[in-house]
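Subgroup meeting minutes
Present: P.N., E.W., G.H.
Scribe: E.W.

1. P.N. recapped why we're keeping a running log of single-chain structure predictions: easier to compare across weeks, and new members can see raw inputs and outputs side by side.
2. G.H. added today's entry (127 aa).
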Amino acid sequence: MTGDPSFSIPARPTRRYPHGSGVEYEGGTEFELVPNRGHTEPELAAVVTDILADGPYRYGDFHDLPMPLWLVRDEDTTDVFRVAVRDGTVRLHVLPETESAGLRRFYDRLCDVDPSLSWAVDRRVDP
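Output recorded in log:
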């Protein structure tokens, strides 16, 4: 398909482990996937949950956050990334070892859910 978005990763986050406070990420790349028609946060979260359940993903969600958020591993590409649903968008957060293949496959599966739905992809880079 012509005009497919690029999932190139120009900047990766740096992982830090501050004393006594878990892990923090500085910088990085995020892909914001915006549907061509409005969806509620619960509707988008249900779509993401269905995609993850169909595989080939291993994933876990974070229960105590004000938005749906999953840590995802694509078992075929071995890519690990975070998926969040926020403000009517699906966001793919690059982690230090994430490669483009896993992000592209997730996007392709998202597009396959409803072929009449198209997704604009906005890449945000925080150096």
